[in-house]
Amino acid sequence: MGKIALFGAAGAIGRSLSEALRERNQPYRVTGRDRARLEKTFGGDPGAEIVTWDPEDAASVRAAARGVDTLIYLVGVPYNHFELHPPTMQKTLDGAIAEGVRRVLLIGTVYPYGTPITATVAEEHPRNPVTFKGKMRKEQEDLLLAADAAGKIEGVILRLPDFYGPGVEASFLDGAFKAAVNGGTANMIGPIDTPHEFVFVPDVGPVALDLAAKPEARGRWWNLAGAGETTQRQMAEMAFRATGKKPKIRAAGKTMVRVMGLFNPFMRELVEMHYLQTTPVLLDDTALTGLLGNVKKTPYAEGVKQSIQYLQSHPQG
């Protein structure tokens, strides 16, 4: 694989990819809107080339994609503005195609599947999103797949469930982990006893790089499942056991989330996604493991332990 660029690199998955690239002695480019944030995260890595971009500026997009062979797309938008996902993807594709980028790998979500109609969800499961966010994510995917089908660029999608890991704050488990370390009550979004799965963020980078290197991966999406079936309560209890504290857990149901949304814009946006708490999407990644072979999945007990150790060594301000 030639030059790799991580677009939207400053988040948790970007850090996982950068660590995997460092382990492989592979130079790479990180791209984002905020140079200071990129410098803070990647400035100490001599293998990282830092480039800022403005996705609204076609020339800026082209400059960020120039000389790149594989573009891994991690670009986030505000949770209350998912309508930005399709146009941002289109502008990125236009710039990447103009600059001769060979392949784009999109890190995707389970949102496009909608409500599951099977116990586990393989790639053949219909994409029938039941929420606005799911529809925007599906539209984003369709733009990439259409560009691939037209022969303009190779497109691949890696679909992830909810994630967690050391330093990962954008996780349903973050509050529980912090309560286990700092004391207090873990505030969680319920119900917390329904089956669930989580992917350990450090495991994602190597899988994404391996998938991007497979020519036969193009033109479709691939699921990466978590380390098995669990529940939010079980994960929280593991965290409290790791610190020797008695579990204190408070779960907010949909009605309470709706009430909290009157005062908290982020909670307001979670209401439409609440179906994932009651009818969770449990991924079947047989196709991915068949393509890549052995895929490392850190057991939940070990992943929780590492997450707790990170919080203990990085006291909260």
From TrEMBL:
Residues 6-223 form the NAD-dependent epimerase/dehydratase domain. InterPro entries: Epimerase_deHydtase, NAD(P)-bd_dom_sf, NAD(P)-dependent_oxidoreduct. Gene3D superfamilies: NAD(P)-binding Rossmann-like Domain (3.40.50.720). GO terms for cellular component: cytoplasm. Pfam families: Epimerase. One of its GO terms (molecular function) is aldehyde dehydrogenase (NAD+) activity. PANTHER family: NAD(P)-BINDING DOMAIN-CONTAINING PROTEIN-RELATED, PROTEIN YEEZ. This is Nucleoside-diphosphate-sugar epimerase. It comes from Edaphobacter modestus.
